[in-house]
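Why should sequence recovery work at all? Because a backbone constrains its sequence more than one might expect. Tight turns favour small or flexible residues, buried strands favour hydrophobic ones, and helices have their own preferences. The token representation captures these environments compactly. In the example below, the structure is given first.
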């Protein structure tokens, strides 16, 4: 009988995986790409893996990073209600959500490799696709069932999923941490984990038949935002050669390390407040927090949502020199081909707990039900978010019902504000820099005639990976779009152009003639997608914010510096 296991030798030692899919796939799980970030390594950049003797068993997934969970559960509950399912099925899904336990650990810096079993015997190396999972930088993992698929590697690539530190463990900023850092900054450990995983891929992927000179990074939501962050940070240059950003979110998009922006405190100030709540205000907070268990810290994190919303990637002048939107505006991003797009109904599952003015403003999404935001409070947030009252009036006119906080209007505005405008801005600026851009728009809806969520946030994931959510029906004609998307994602990774034989040519994006690939059911096709009514206004807002928040950042001095004597606008400093 042929062996059901397979071995490989990576830089840290020999590993054992397993053959799956009737021997067609070599599947390695839980490969460490960095040392466990525990003890004194908690809130430190990832350290190299220590070598081991013998053969390490890599046939099972490792644990997930610690999760925040509350907002994610609300999203799923709202989604289940909007899919048009029967009452019994909805009850079963919601009950299952409460029962399912995810193994969590700080020792989570592991990745998974799936490759054609014959890849190492080929006379050429295969393209590599590295998936960065979503989940608002607070939840999720690379081991989730919807990514556990042969769809892409069966087409001829080496497929990698990664874990990275999330939330408070991945992005806590604090002056004592900055004092430990040779760069004089803190936070962004989750982003550094992603870079470390890409360095591991560069150094090891050839062992599995992959080409280290043809690596595509791709991700959805927070993973899509991570793709844009990786395109922004100089430390990731040369580690990837193409990028796919699916519905890149705006989680903490304007968060800065040492100055407030919009409704955000400076990240280090929020970190000090968090430490005050957890261990008291006396000096040596970091040492005391490192003595606490991960469960103890997570309990505080989940109970302090106002501070927890600051544990996201932050502009620090070093790891993340500027926001991705600013980087794209000034053409400082990586010059690689980019595929980017979003879904037509991104915020339908968020509307009940989304702040009407967008993710930059606080709304407690840790409670169910969430209290509505009063109209006057929402309008005041809009006034802080846009450069003039005239802009706010135009936004209200563009989304009828938003002035009275109508749920449908909140969903329409939220989809554009959180996802659409970031896709639009990045695509336009990247194309203006002379780089290939391919835009898509996903419109495929659930099959039930009773569904109300439309092409909801994350719906395209199941098409890209040809997977499905347990107990949720799949449309009979979905396979046509699934095959199309899988072919195009793979083709882009292989060649930088998302075309394959027998399929309509996907033209490069031209802002003057903005043709998209529209993925619907049962067919997809190229079309000019009319911009949403508020996109132009939001683009103006981004340009204003990128200019306002672009003062040079001096990480060592602990302050932003500017060549101008003019103060920043009150609406941003508020």
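From this structural description, the recovered sequence reads:
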């Amino acid at each position: 009988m042929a062996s059901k296991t397979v071995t490989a030798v990576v830089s840290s030692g020999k590993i054992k995986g397993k053959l799956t899919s009737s021997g067609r796939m070599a599947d390695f799980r839980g490969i460490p790409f960095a040392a466990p970030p525990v003890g004194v390594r908690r809130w430190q950049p990832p350290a190299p893996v220590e070598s081991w003797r013998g053969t390490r068993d890599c046939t099972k997934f490792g644990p997930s990073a610690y999760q925040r969970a509350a907002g994610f559960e609300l999203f799923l509950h709202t989604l289940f209600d909007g899919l048009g399912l029967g009452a019994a099925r909805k009850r079963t899904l919601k009950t299952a959500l409460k029962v399912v336990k995810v193994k969590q650990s700080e020792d989570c810096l592991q990745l998974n490799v799936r490759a054609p079993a014959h890849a190492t015997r080929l006379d050429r190396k295969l393209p590599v696709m590295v998936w960065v999972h979503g989940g608002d930088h607070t939840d999720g993992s690379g081991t989730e069932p919807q990514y556990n698929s042969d769809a892409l590697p069966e087409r001829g690539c080496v497929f990698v999923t990664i874990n990275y530190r999330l939330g408070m463990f991945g992005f806590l900023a604090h002056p004592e941490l900055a004092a430990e850092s040779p760069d004089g900054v803190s936070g962004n450990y989750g982003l550094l984990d992603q870079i470390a995983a890409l360095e591991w891929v560069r150094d090891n992927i050839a062992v599995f038949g992959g080409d280290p000179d043809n690596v595509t990074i791709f991700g959805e939501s927070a993973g899509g935002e991570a793709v844009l962050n990786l395109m922004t940070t100089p430390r990731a240059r040369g580690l990837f050669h193409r990028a796919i950003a699916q519905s890149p979110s705006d989680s903490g998009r304007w968060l800065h390390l040492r100055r407030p922006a919009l409704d955000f405190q400076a990240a280090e100030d929020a970190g000090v407040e968090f430490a005050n709540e957890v261990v008291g205000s006396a000096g040596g907070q970091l040492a005391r927090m490192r003595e606490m268990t991960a469960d103890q810290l997570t309990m505080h994190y989940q109970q302090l949502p106002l501070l927890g919303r600051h544990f996201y990637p932050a502009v620090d002048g070093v790891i993340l020199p500027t926001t991705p939107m600013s980087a794209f505006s000034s053409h400082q991003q990586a010059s690689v081909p980019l595929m980017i797009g979003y879904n037509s109904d991104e915020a339908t599952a968020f509307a009940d707990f989304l702040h009407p003015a967008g993710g930059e403003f606080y709304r407690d999404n840790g409670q169910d039900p969430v209290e509505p935001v009063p109209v006057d409070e929402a309008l005041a947030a809009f006034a802080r978010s846009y450069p003039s009252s005239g802009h706010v009036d135009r936004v209200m006119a563009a989304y009828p019902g938003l002035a009275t906080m109508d749920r449908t209007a909140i969903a329409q505005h939220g989809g554009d504000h959180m996802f659409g405008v970031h896709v639009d801005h990045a695509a336009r600026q990247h194309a203006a820099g002379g780089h290939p851009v391919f835009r898509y728009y996903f419109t495929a809806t659930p099959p039930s005639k009773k569904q109300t969520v439309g092409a909801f946030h994350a719906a395209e994931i199941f098409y890209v990976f040809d997977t499905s959510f347990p107990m949720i029906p799949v449309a009979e004609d979905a396979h046509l779009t699934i095959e199309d998307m899988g072919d195009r994602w793979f083709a882009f990774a292989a060649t930088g152009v998302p075309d394959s034989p027998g399929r309509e040519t996907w033209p490069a994006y031209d802002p003057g003639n903005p043709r998209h690939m529209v993925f619907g059911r049962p067919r997809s096709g190229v079309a000019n997608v009319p911009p949403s009514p508020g996109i132009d206004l939001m683009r103006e807002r981004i340009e204003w914010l990128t200019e306002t928040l672009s003062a040079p950042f001096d990480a060592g001095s602990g302050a932003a510096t500017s060549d101008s004597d003019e103060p920043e606008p009150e609406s941003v400093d508020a």
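A few observations help interpret the result. Residues 557-574 have pLDDT under 50 and may be disordered.
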